[in-house]
């Protein structure tokens, strides 16, 4: 028979366990439970499912850290709600953390109503930086690699791209999604760009992807902002022409046009400095074209000013990750309460989300 001390101890143990569980980890409390039926041609549904599967990767690693297994695991509802199963987890060989997952669509027989199915068969998802647990130091190292344009040289990306190539080689490139958030969005973008260079164009859903540039978008005065961007474009285009004339090595422009047929979906928040520059990046291209300076911008947008300068100095510079020709850009217009909300993954499946979307195609 349990004593009063046993009951108190058990109660305290349960309370301590609950403290370790964040509300945002619980699908029933924080997930898109309003999506009881998925229309795979609905862009809002696609966005919500992709974001939820990324969240599933975050929770997979948290389950691992907190030793939550079986019925205590919190990750499965994030994919089972949409009738996916976990096909494979992607583990970093440096710290053994889970940084990605491959999901396979496995609907029940009752799912189909006789109409043509538009769902994807596989989703490859990558999480961003975790601020808790053993994965933090390794994630920060990867963030630094992004800053140095060296993500492609890491073993984590090698694991990721091998997984992508395996799925494509085994099941074909159709009906495969790439998705990720923050660091994970950078990973998915690099994987998508790598595959696109070989002629394989995968659907991609990139949430808060890092854009490594001076924070011009945070300038409130539109004239000042446009002036800075215009001057930067002129200088960049001039250096690009000079580099070509002098045969200075620069890889950015060589692959840029080849990537133009790949049109990933980018989801950015203007209050998030990590990704906000994508708004100005594409907006400026249109402005330059409108004012008759499209030729200058067409050259400038293919190159990194910093990379050109380094190349002129005789130093090799890897292709900047954020240089991307085409995209379906979706901007969250809902004012966030703080940076954490502006950068978070949870914003992207809210049913009352106010967004503005536009396709930008490089021609």
Automatic annotation (TrEMBL):
<dbReference type="Pfam" id="PF01764">
    <property type="entry name" value="Lipase_3"/>
</dbReference>
<keyword id="KW-0378">Hydrolase</keyword>
<dbReference type="InterPro" id="IPR002921">
    <property type="entry name" value="Fungal_lipase-type"/>
</dbReference>
<dbReference type="InterPro" id="IPR029058">
    <property type="entry name" value="AB_hydrolase_fold"/>
</dbReference>
<protein>
    <submittedName>
        <fullName>Triacylglycerol lipase</fullName>
    </submittedName>
</protein>
<dbReference type="GO" id="GO:0006629">
    <property type="term" value="P:lipid metabolic process"/>
</dbReference>
<feature type="domain" description="Fungal lipase-type">
    <location>
        <begin position="121"/>
        <end position="201"/>
    </location>
</feature>
<dbReference type="GO" id="GO:0016787">
    <property type="term" value="F:hydrolase activity"/>
</dbReference>
